[in-house]
Amino acid sequence: MNNQRSFFFNVDWVTVFIYLALCTIGWLNIHAAVFDERHPGFFDLATNYGKQFLFIGISIVVAIVILLLESRLITALAPVFYVLTIILLLLVLVIGRNVGGNQAWISLGGGFRLQPSEFAKFTTCLLLARYLSGPNVRVTELKSFFIALAIIGFPMLLILMQPDMGSTLVFYSLIFVLYREGLSPYYLVISALFIVLFLTSILFSPLYMITVISVIALIIVLLFRKNKRLVVTVLTGLAICVAFVLSVKFIYNHVLQPHQKVRIDIVLGITSDLKGKGYNVNQSKIAIGSGKLWGKGYLHGTQTKYSFVPAQSTDFIFCTVGEEWGFVGSIVVLSLFLFLILRIIFIAERQRSPFSRIYGYGVASIIFFHVFINIATTIGLAPVIGIPLPFISYGGSSLLNFTLLLFVLIKLDSNRMGIV
């Protein structure tokens, strides 16, 4: 009895409440986004909102099961879960169903599909935490660093083959986990610089980019010519940057899908295609802007009601929030996400177990990336890469994955005093 009572009080109910609030908000907005007068009921399984209610119910059951499990079992099975996900990612390349140009789903029958790439985020976080929390593992050491990159990179490669660029990029957010565990901040700076270099190399010709980079490198060399080590580093960096700039056009023309290139061009202002590839984002911005301060009211959004925004129950669900709930409603949703991410970081920092801490940062990184990119997409600040808004977008695989991510952390936290 005492153990049960202790367990009840150790569960972080604040985080559970935020989870339930976001799921409820998502369900209501999915109902608004795809409302069908022939099926007005919230629980009609012939509709997406009826199915989402089913997904929420299943996710809550899974959450309860996780809270009743032994924490050490989760840690021990991390490699098994990871391998099972890799098998599913290989399987989806063979028998997967192609939806929207991505062969990312396995059909389960009855209109239900499984997306293995969603669960790969969860299992990768688990195995990464298991490895980095092991004895004699230091992310600052080259061997440990490359093994950690391999754990992250293997599922990324398989997901890229689908090809699902959005889900692939999500794994990049796990660099923040490595940074928390001691990786030099220079890696974050270098990563950001290469993203900027990639985008500017699309905007400008290779000759112009190489000239600018070379001039900057020459100035640094002249100023610090007595520091031979720095000069060698700068010249090496110059060679890498030149090779990268020259490879950008190849990547842009032969690796990215045509629709992905158009979306990047629209965000960078290279082209304007309001009736084609830019239609979704333009209509989304119109919907969000039309909501003004208080919104048009539930089920009264005209952009939503007349289906002007494609994929409005999935990738563009936030424009339903903006139109029907207005600026105030949008701030409430954003505040819930901000509070959730800060709460997860707080939970991670109070752990005694390195595994729990590392896993917590993985959860925070993935949720932050999804929220930031999804909302930036709906307001035209990022290319459309097709990732859902956690707990709010329609989709069983997505909701179940984020439930697993969050409630495993809650479970680890509830037992933190007994974990070594």
In brief, what are we looking at here?
This protein is mainly α and 420 residues long. The chain is built from 18 helices and three strands. Strands 1-2-3 form a three-stranded antiparallel beta sheet, covered by helices on one side.
Question: Which terms would index this structure?
Answer:
420 residues, 3% strand, mainly alpha, 3-stranded antiparallel β-sheet, 70% helix
Polypeptide structure, described:
This protein is mainly alpha-helical. About 70% of the residues lie in helices and about 5% in strands. The chain contains 18 helices and 3 strands. Strands 1-2-3 form a 3-stranded antiparallel beta sheet, covered by helices on one side. Helix 11 (about 205-225) packs antiparallel against helix 12 and helix 16 (about 315-350) packs antiparallel against helix 17 (about 355-380). The two termini are about 25 Å apart. The model has no long low-confidence stretch (mean pLDDT about 85).
Instruction: Using the alpha-carbon principal axes, give the shape.
Output: globular
Strand content: under 5%
Across the major sheet, the strand order is 1-2-3
Number of strands: 3
How does the SSE layout of this entry go?
Elements: H1 2-10, H2 13-33, H3 48-68, H4 71-76, H5 78-95, E1 97-99, E2 102-109, E3 112-114, H6 116-132, H7 142-160, H8 165-170, H9 175-180, H10 185-203, H11 206-223, H12 228-255, H13 258-268, H14 279-290, H15 302-305, H16 317-349, H17 354-378, H18 396-414
Antiparallel strand pairs: 1-2, 2-3
Helix pairs in contact: 2-3, 2-16, 3-18, 5-6, 5-7, 6-7, 6-17, 6-18, 10-12, 11-12, 14-16, 16-17, 17-18
